C-alpha cells in the first residue's frame, strides 16, 4: 500500500461515506461566508473592495482534506440563499414568477458547488491552484452564460463596474477577463492565510494534500501582484486614448410607470401619453437640436402595434377576410400608426432648435408580422424624420418564463392559461438604424444582460458591408422589478458590454437604467432610479476594435470544456486521481 497517496475523497454530494467528517462549525462559517461576502460586494450595497475575498469561502472549501455529502448540501443551501437574495427583484414581475424565482435560485446554486468539485479534481491532477481556480471559474461562468438561454448578470467581474481602470481588460476577454483577475487575487489571499494557519498549527494539516508550501504562496502572491498591476496599467492606457466628438444628439426618455402583463386599452394609451408629454418637456429643456428620441420597451405601442408583412397570411384566415380586404386593413393600420408618429414629431419639432427640425423616433413597440403564420415580436420601430417607418428590429433573445415558456404552444391547457405576451417570436437578425451620420445597433432588455448576445449582434453587423455601428441603443422595461437591485445589475451588464464592444450604450428604460454610458464603461449621465425625466446624449465615436469583437468568447469556451471534462471526470482521470 502506498502510504504517501492522498486520502480517498467522495467528489460528489450524491456519494456518502462513514469516514466523512460531520458538518462542523468551520464548515458552517465557510458556507455562510460564501453567501454573505459575495452579496455584500454586489448591489444593492456594492462594496467592491470585498471582491478581493469574495471567492475565498469556496477556495477554502475546496482545500479541505475531505468533504462529505452533508457538507456539500450545506454549501448548496447557502448558494440558494445567495441567489434568492440577489435576484429577489424578479418576484415583483408577476405572481407566476415566484416559483420561477426560487427555481432559478436553485438552479444557479448548482454552479458554486460544481466549482468546488472541479477545482479539487484539477488540483488532484497536479494543477496549481493559481491556475486551476481562475480556469475553473471562467469555465463555470461561460457555461452559465449559455445554459438555459444564459444569464450574464451578477458575474464576479461586475463587482468592479465602478472602477473604470480595472475593467478595461473586458475588451480582451469580456467580463470573464475581469473575473479571472479577481480569482487570482483571491487565490493569493487564501494561500497566504492557509500557509500562516498551517505554520501556527504545526502538523495539524499534514494529511491534507492541499496544504500550501511557502514556494506556492510566493508564486500566488507574485502572480496576483503582476496581474493586478498589468490590469491597472492597461486600464489607465485605454482610458487615456482619445475618442471623436459626435454631431448627433439623442434624447433618452425614462419614467417610472407601473405596468402589468395584461393591460387594458386605457392604460396603454396613458403610457403613450405620459411618454409623449415627457418627450415634449425634454425638447423644451434644451436649445440643442435633437436628432432622435428614444422610448423604452413597449411604451410606443399605445394600442397600435406596427404591422409588418404583406397582409396576405394567417390573419385573413382567422378573421374570415379576403386577401384584398386584409391588405386594405393592414394598409389602414400602418397609416394610423405613422400618422400618430408624425403628429408626435410635429409637436416635438416646435421646440427643436431654430429650424424646428422633426426628430427621428426610436420606440420600443410591439410588432405583428402577418405572413403564413401571425408572429408577434417585442420590437423597436425606427420612424424617420418624414414620419415613415424606416425599419424595425425584433428582439432575438427572449426571456424564458417572461416572454415565452418552452413547449407552451404544444400544451393547450397551459397555452390558454398564460398571458398572451408569453408567446412572442424571436427576431432573426441584428439591425442597423441610421440617424443622420450615426449608426445605431438596437438591443432590447435582456440582450444587454446576456453579454454574448450584444457582442454577437455587433460581430454580425461587422461582417457585412456596413461595418460596425457607432453605438448601441437599448430599450427596456424594468418596472417589473420594482426598485430592486436587479436594475443596477442590468446597468452593470451594459457597462461591460460597452467596454467589450468599445461602443457607447444609450439606454432608455421604464423604471430602469436610463443612462448614457461611454465606450469605456463609464456612466456619463443617468436618471436616478425610479425617477421621471430624460438624458440628452451626444455619444463620442470610438474607432477602436476590441479583441472580443475579433475572436468572440472562444478562450472562455475552452475553459468551459475543461470544466465539464473535470466535472464528468473520464475513467482515465479517475485512475490518475
Give your account of this protein's structure.
Belongs to the CN hydrolase family. Apolipoprotein N-acyltransferase subfamily. Residues 248-541 form the CN hydrolase domain. Its main location: membrane. The chain has helices at residues 25-41, 56-62, 69-86, 97-108, 110-124, 129-144, 164-167, 170-201, 214-240, 265-284, 314-319, 323-349, 412-417, 451-463, 486-501, 547-551, 554-568, 571-576; strands at 250-254, 292-295, 306-309, 360-370, 374-383, 389-394, 433-435, 438-444, 471-477, 505-510, 515-517, 523-526, 533-537. By secondary structure, the protein is α/β, with parallel strands linked by helices. The protein folds into 2 domains: 25-241 and 554-576, no CATH class; 250-543, Nitrilase/N-carbamoyl-D-aminoacid amidohydrolase (4-Layer Sandwich), CATH 3.60.110. The strands form 2 sheets. Strands 1, 2, 3, 4, 5, 6 and 13 form a 7-stranded mixed β-sheet that branches. A 6-stranded mixed β-sheet has the order 7-8-9-10-11-12, with helices on one face. The chain is elongated and about 85 Å long.
Short description:
Keywords: Acyltransferase, Cell membrane, Membrane, Transferase, Transmembrane, Transmembrane helix. By secondary structure, this protein is an alpha/beta fold.
Keywords:
membrane; elongated; 13 strands; alpha/beta; Nitrilase/N-carbamoyl-D-aminoacid amidohydrolase; six-stranded mixed sheet; Apolipoprotein N-acyltransferase; 577 residues; 2 domains; single chain; acyltransferase; transmembrane
Amino acid at each position: 500500500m502506498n502510504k504517501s497517496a492522498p486520502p480517498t475523497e467522495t467528489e460528489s454530494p450524491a456519494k456518502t461515506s462513514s469516514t466523512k467528517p460531520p458538518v462542523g462549525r468551520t464548515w458552517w462559517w465557510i458556507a455562510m461566508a460564501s453567501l454573505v461576502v459575495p452579496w455584500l460586494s454586489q448591489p444593492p450595497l456594492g462594496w467592491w473592495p470585498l471582491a478581493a475575498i469574495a471567492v475565498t469561502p469556496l477556495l477554502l472549501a475546496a482545500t479541505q482534506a475531505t468533504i462529505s455529502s452533508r457538507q456539500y448540501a450545506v454549501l448548496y443551501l447557502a448558494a440558494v440563499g445567495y441567489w434568492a437574495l440577489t435576484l429577489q427583484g424578479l418576484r415583483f414581475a408577476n405572481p407566476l414568477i415566484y416559483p420561477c424565482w426560487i427555481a432559478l435560485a436553485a438552479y444557479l446554486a448548482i454552479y458554486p458547488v460544481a466549482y468546488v468539485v472541479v477545482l479539487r479534481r484539477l488540483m488532484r491532477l497536479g494543477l496549481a491552484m493559481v491556475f486551476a481556480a481562475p480556469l475553473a471559474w471562467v469555465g463555470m461562468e461561460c457555461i452559465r452564460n449559455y445554459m438555459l438561454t444564459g444569464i450574464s448578470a451578477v458575474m464576479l467581474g461586475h463587482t468592479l463596474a465602478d472602477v473604470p481602470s480595472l475593467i478595461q481588460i473586458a475588451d480582451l476577454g469580456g467580463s470573464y477577463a475581469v473575473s479571472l483577475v479577481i480569482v487570482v487575487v483571491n487565490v493569493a489571499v487564501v494561500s497566504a492565510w492557509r500557509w500562516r494557519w498551517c505554520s501556527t498549527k504545526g502538523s495539524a494539516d499534514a494529511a491534507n494534500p492541499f496544504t500550501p508550501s511557502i514556494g506556492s504562496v510566493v508564486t500566488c502572491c507574485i502572480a496576483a501582484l503582476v496581474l493586478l498591476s498589468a490590469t491597472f496599467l492597461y486600464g489607465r492606457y485605454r482610458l487615456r486614448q482619445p475618442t471623436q466628438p459626435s454631431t448627433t444628439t439623442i434624447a433618452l426618455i425614462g419614467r417610472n410607470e407601473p405596468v402589468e402583463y395584461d393591460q387594458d386599452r386605457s392604460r396603454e394609451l396613458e403610457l403613450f401619453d405620459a411618454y409623449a408629454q415627457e418627450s415634449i418637456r425634454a425638447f423644451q429643456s434644451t436649445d440643442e437640436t435633437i436628432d432622435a428620441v428614444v422610448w423604452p420597451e413597449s411604451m410606443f405601442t399605445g394600442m397600435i402595434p406596427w404591422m409588418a408583412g404583406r397582409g396576405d397570411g394567417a390573419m385573413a384566415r382567422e378573421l374570415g377576410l379576403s386577401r384584398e380586404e386584409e391588405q386594405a386593413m393592414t394598409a389602414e393600420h400602418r397609416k394610423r400608426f405613422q400618422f400618430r408618429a408624425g403628429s408626435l414629431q410635429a409637436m416635438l419639432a416646435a421646440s427643436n432648435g431654430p429650424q424646428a427640425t422633426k426628430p427621428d423616433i426610436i420606440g420600443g413597440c410591439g410588432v405583428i408580422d402577418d405572413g403564413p403564420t401571425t408572429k408577434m415580436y417585442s420590437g423597436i420601430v425606427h420612424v424617420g424624420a418624414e414620419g415613415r417607418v424606416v425599419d424595425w428590429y425584433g428582439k432575438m433573445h427572449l426571456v424564458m418564463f417572461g416572454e415565452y415558456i418552452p413547449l407552451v404552444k404544444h400544451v393547450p391547457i397551459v397555452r390558454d392559461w398564460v398571458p398572451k405576451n408569453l408567446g412572442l417570436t424571436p427576431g432573426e437578425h441584428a439591425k442597423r438604424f441610421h440617424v443622420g451620420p450615426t449608426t445605431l445597433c438596437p438591443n432590447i432588455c435582456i440582450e444587454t444582460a446576456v453579454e454574448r448576445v450584444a457582442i454577437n449582434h455587433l460581430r454580425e453587423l461587422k461582417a457585412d458591408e456596413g461595418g460596425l455601428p457607432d453605438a448601441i441603443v437599448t430599450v427596456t422595461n424594468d418596472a417589473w422589478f420594482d426598485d430592486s437591485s436587479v436594475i443596477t445589475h442590468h446597468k452593470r451588464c451594459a457597462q461591460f458590454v460597452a467596454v467589450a464592444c468599445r461602443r457607447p450604450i444609450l439606454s432608455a428604460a421604464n423604471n430602469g437604467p436610463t443612462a448614457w454610458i461611454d465606450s469605456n464603461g463609464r456612466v456619463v449621465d443617468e436618471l436616478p432610479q425610479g425617477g421621471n425625466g430624460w438624458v440628452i446624449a451626444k455619444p463620442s465615436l470610438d474607432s477602436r476594435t476590441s479583441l472580443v469583437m475579433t475572436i468572440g468568447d472562444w478562450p472562455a469556451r475552452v475553459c468551459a470544456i475543461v470544466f465539464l471534462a473535470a466535472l464528468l471526470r473520464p475513467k482515465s482521470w479517475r485512475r490518475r486521481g
